[in-house]
Design brief:
single chain, mainly beta, Jelly Rolls, 2 domains, 8-stranded antiparallel beta sheet, 48% strand
């Protein structure tokens, strides 16, 4: 600060009138900047008040980019579809197209649909988790990418393996308008307490409002070892996880599994490296997120989304990529942690040791 043209430096003395402190004391004096509030924000949401075949939100602020989170409690099987609109939902015309693949099988497409696009062909009455992102730009057709995961039965034993669907959608019925209403439709009831959350973010998103995703945990290895977040404080219903890691040599690091809360049982998954049908496995020690099949040239990257409700089993989907001998190896997985305990710790179990610089970061969000 300045006083009468002179520069005066303020000093805070530590215990014993010391100026140089310990690492812990320096950390205590550090002021952390608040994150910029210019990311995904809640535009609208709804919690299903009673059983019904639809769940919807209307009069949503128009944003260039849309993310939709669906935590849907079901009572029977049936297609999950999506309707979008501006002033109203469409009732005529050829407005929707979709291209989808179930459990890594063959791609199936439908076109010239009037009222909705198919997101997934649901074959179970267990809870399901859907994540979708949409481009909602004016004067452009609205394009979407969706992933849905659910278990066939409760538990991690035989028959409880997860099912998954990947879907691409196109909505062209509104021409230059941006979407402002969204609805999931089902061939059976979407039960009470199901949630639909609409997040939005403009390309030049401002700083007003509050980000939906907040950082819960981050771990970067400063010595070789295991990639483990440790236990974080607080719980969130929805988790987003990114991890980059590398082995300590160019040899394969082995298969990579995700474990929660230090538990080594209660998992089931369906995974595949490359193309083809996904392989189901039950009664596992973790959820397989990467099926390693080559040398470790330049590390691995994994992204996961997790439904972390306190009243249901935990549903997970992941995508991963590895570089081996100059080639890209990709993998995808859907999995389930058969516990109602909310996740507050994540570790990646690998066949080898993770190198210095390997890192994992977890964000969480839920309705207030």
């Amino acid at each position: 600060m300045e006083s009468d043209g002179e520069f005066i430096m303020a000093i805070k003395y530590l215990a014993g009138e010391r100026i140089i402190g310990t690492a812990a004391e320096r950390a205590a004096l550090t002021v952390s900047a608040s994150p910029t509030q210019n990311s995904w924000k809640v535009l609208d949401s709804t919690v299903q008040p009673s059983n019904a075949t639809t769940i919807e939100v209307t009069s949503v602020d128009k944003k260039d980019n849309i993310m939709i989170l669906g935590s849907l409690l079901k009572s029977s099987t049936g297609d999950l579809t999506l309707s979008t609109g501006d002033s109203s939902f469409p009732s005529s015309g050829s407005n929707y197209s979709d291209l989808r693949i179930e459990n890594g099988g063959s791609w199936v497409g439908t076109s010239a649909r009037t009222t909705n696009a198919i997101i997934a062909d649901i074959q179970s009455n267990t809870p399901q988790f859907t994540v979708g992102t949409m481009s909602n730009r004016a004067n452009k057709e609205k394009l979407g990418i969706w992933t849905t995961v659910y278990g066939m039965t409760a538990g991690s034993g035989s028959g409880g393996e997860t099912q998954s669907a990947k879907t691409m959608t196109k909505d062209s019925h509104t021409g230059s308008n941006q979407m402002s209403r969204y609805r999931f439709n089902s061939g059976s009831n979407i039960n009470a307490d199901s949630e639909m959350i609409i997040l939005g973010c403009d390309d030049d998103e401002g700083s007003s409002g509050t980000n939906f995703w907040t950082e819960l945990a981050e771990k970067t290895l400063t010595s070789t070892g295991t990639l483990d977040t440790g236990t974080w404080t607080g719980t969130k219903k929805y988790l987003w996880v990114d991890a980059w890691f590398k082995g300590t040599s160019t040899s394969s690091i082995g298969n990579v599994s995700c474990q929660f809360n230090g538990e080594t049982s209660g998992y089931t998954h369906r995974y595949k490296a490359g193309v083809g049908d996904h392989v189901p496995q039950h009664s596992q020690s973790g959820i397989r997120v990467h099926d390693d099949s080559g040398n470790d040239d330049d590390g691995y990257f994994v992204r996961m989304y997790i439904l972390n409700r306190p009243d249901t089993e935990k549903l997970v989907w992941s995508r991963s990529v590895q570089i081996s001998d100059g080639n890209i190896i990709r993998a995808e997985s859907s999995g389930k942690y058969a516990s109602n305990d909310q996740i507050t710790r994540i570790n990646l179990a690998v066949g080898g040791t993770c190198a210095i610089g390997s890192c994992i970061k977890v964000w969480g969000g839920e309705l207030p």
